[in-house]
Each structure stands twice: as structure tokens, then as C-alpha cells.
């Protein structure tokens, strides 16, 4: 089956096979997101998915990584997901890592035994958009996930041996709630202790509720300097024991990456140099989603 556009996958999955098991997002209510507005959430028939796996096995028999599309592939029922993963493992035995986006409610609804079964079938990495550690901001943005739910889901995933890659959206609080965004996000990340952490920067998408709020003066977007300040202050307050952190997404003005806590001072020094104007920021026309 042809992939249903638009296709969105993490930058780190650039070399992965893309297997469509759902379309759209199981939530699709966030005021800042326009990613899945043109396609409703639905589950692809298992028979079609198995046929796609057969075709991948014929064309890409030596593939090593596979990413399950779309915005919350783990929303499909456990039995169906097991059938799909078993078929992937049978037909593509060289695959050593299967990954997916998910929402917290698709994790907390599963038992520890069910999550362990997914890990056994090579589900290795799960990507989740925290966006902000502030429950007030999450509610304001109409994100269905909760801070407590996401912390609980990360704990369950880690207990099952599944790595977590958490995404934070700089600028989501605007000028009014920037301080709250910084403090609560750092606090929540310290509670999560994710294996991977990615920072993205807010880009207002025309037609979304948040973009309309900005047009009507109800939301004030941060400047590049203010986004750098948020990034600096969140990282300053992080107490992560073993996390690979990056801000290499196309939306960011300054690419940084490294391991915390080992590279924390170097990362902060780089951000400080950019804030002083000693490092050039990415031109606006090079930014993207």
C-alpha cells in the first residue's frame, strides 16, 4: 500500500523503513500542531500491513531499522500489534530496531506483560511529545496527554526495557508563560530521566488555533534570543543521569547535541556564545518542520 501523505518521522529515523500501520494521530487536538489535520486517525487493516511487510522483505531484505507510522502507531490493539511485529521479525530477520511515535494513554493502558511482549519483538524506541512540563500549558494547548500520565508511561516503558525519546517544544508558553515553561519542563524531565531528549522550536502553522491566537494578539511568539534563553535555562536546571540531548531539528536556530551530564558545560557554553552573538544563528528561511 502506498504511504499516505504527509509522512512525518523523527530525523533519527531517516534511514528506516517506514511501515504504515495507522493514519493520522489518535489525539489530533493540539492547538500548535497541523501535522495530521488533513487525514483522520484510522487503523490500517492487518492483512494490508502484512502484505506490505512481505513486499519490504522482497525489496529490502537487509534492512536494519523500521519505523511504524503515523502519529501514535501503538494505539492499535495489542493482539494486532503482536501479529504485525511477529510478521516483521519473521520476514525481516535483520531488523534490530523497531520504533514508533506514541501518546501516554497508549502506554498506560497496557500491562507490564504486554509492554514486555512488545520489547521481546524488537520494539526498541518510543518517541513521545512532552512539549512542556506545565500541565496548565498542556491543557491550554488542548493536548490530551497529561504530565503525570507521561511520567508514568515513561516509567512503564523503561521497566519493559524500551528506550524513550522525549520531545520538548521551545516557545510553547509564549512570552507570558515562558518562565513556567522553563521551570516545569526541567522538573518533569528530571522525573522522567529519558534516554534521549530532543528540543524543537515552535513555528506557528497557518490555520492552527495557536496561529490564530497569535494573529489576534492572544499569544506572543518568542524571538530567537528568547528561544535560546529558554533552551539555556532548561538545560541549566536539568539533572539527568544518562541522557543524549540534541537540538538538531530544522526548526531550531542553533544546533547542539551531547550527553548529559558529561557535555552539559560545553553545551551551555555554546548557547552562551550564540546569545552573545559569537555564533551565527540559522537564517529564518532555513528553518522548517
Q: How would you describe what is shown here?
A:
The chain has 289 residues and is α/β, with parallel strands linked by helices. It has a single domain (11-286), classed as Aldolase class I (TIM Barrel), CATH 3.20.20.70. Helix content is 38%, strand content 17%. It contains ten helices and ten strands. It has helices at residues 46-59, 78-91, 104-108, 112-120, 135-140, 147-159, 178-192, 209-215, 224-237, 264-275, and strands spanning 17-20, 22-23, 42-43, 65-69, 97-101, 123-131, 163-170, 196-201, 243-246, 257-260. It has an eight-stranded mixed beta sheet. Helix 1 (46-59) packs parallel to helix 2, helix 7 runs parallel beside helix 9 and helix 9 runs antiparallel to helix 10 (264-275). It is globular. The chain starts with 16 loop residues before the first strand and ends in a 14-residue tail after the last helix. The mean pLDDT is 94.
Percent helix range: 25-40%
Q: What order do the strands of the largest sheet run in, or round the barrel if closed? A: 1-4-5-6-7-8-9-10
Mean pLDDT: 94
Sheet of most strands: 8 strands, mixed
Name the CATH class: Alpha Beta
Radius of gyration from the alpha-carbon trace, in angstroms: 19 Å
CATH homologous superfamily descriptor? Aldolase class I
User: What is the domain tally?
Assistant: 1
Query: What is the terminal-to-terminal distance?
Result: 26 Å
H/E series, N to C? EEEHEHEHHEHHEHEHHEEH
Identify the CATH architecture.
Alpha-Beta Barrel
Strand content: 15-25%
> Care to count the β-strands?
10
CATH T-level topology: TIM Barrel
| Number of DSSP helical runs | 10
- Choose one word for the global shape: globular
Give the helix/strand class.
Answer: alpha/beta
Low-confidence stretches: none
Amino acid at each position: 500500500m502506498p504511504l499516505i501523505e504527509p509522512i512525518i518521522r523523527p530525523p533519527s529515523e531517516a534511514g528506516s523503513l517506514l511501515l504504515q500501520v495507522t493514519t493520522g494521530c489518535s489525539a489530533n487536538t493540539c492547538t500548535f500542531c497541523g501535522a495530521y489535520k488533513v487525514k483522520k486517525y484510522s487503523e490500517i487493516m492487518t492483512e494490508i500491513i502484512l502484505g506490505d511487510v512481505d513486499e519490504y522483505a522482497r525489496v529490502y531484505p537487509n534492512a536494519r531499522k523500521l519505523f511504524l507510522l503515523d502519529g501514535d502507531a501503538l494505539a492499535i490493539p495489542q493482539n494486532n500489534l503482536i501479529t504485525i511485529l511477529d510478521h516483521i521479525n519473521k520476514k525481516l530477520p535483520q531488523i534490530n530496531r523497531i520504533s514508533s511515535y506514541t501518546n501516554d494513554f497508549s502506554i498506560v493502558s497496557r500491562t507490564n506483560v504486554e509492554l514486555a511482549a512488545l520489547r521481546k519483538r524488537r520494539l526498541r524506541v518510543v518517541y513521545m511529545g512532552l512539549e512542556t512540563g506545565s500541565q496548565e500549558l498542556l491543557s491550554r494547548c488542548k493536548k490530551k496527554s497529561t504530565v503525570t500520565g507521561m511520567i508514568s508511561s515513561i516509567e512503564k516503558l523503561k521497566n519493559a526495557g524500551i528506550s524513550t525519546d522525549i520531545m520538548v517544544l521551545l516557545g510553547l508558553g509564549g512570552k507570558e508563560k515562558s518562565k513556567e515553561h522553563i521551570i516545569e519542563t526541567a522538573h518533569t524531565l528530571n522525573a522522567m530521566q529519558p534516554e534521549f531528549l530532543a528540543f524543537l522550536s515552535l513555528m506557528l502553522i497557518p490555520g492552527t488555533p495557536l496561529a490564530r491566537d497569535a494573529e489576534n494578539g492572544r499569544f506572543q511568539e518568542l524571538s530567537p534570543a528568547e528561544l535560546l534563553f529558554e533552551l539555556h535555562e532548561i538545560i541549566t536546571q536539568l539533572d539527568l543521569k544518562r541522557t543524549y540531548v540534541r537540538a538538531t531539528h530544522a526548526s531550531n536556530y542553533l544546533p547542539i547535541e551531547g550527553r548529559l551530564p558529561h557535555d552539559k558545560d560545553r553545551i551551555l557554553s555554546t548557547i552562551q556564545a550564540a546569545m552573545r552573538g559569537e555564533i551565527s544563528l540559522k537564517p529564518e528561511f532555513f528553518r522548517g518542520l
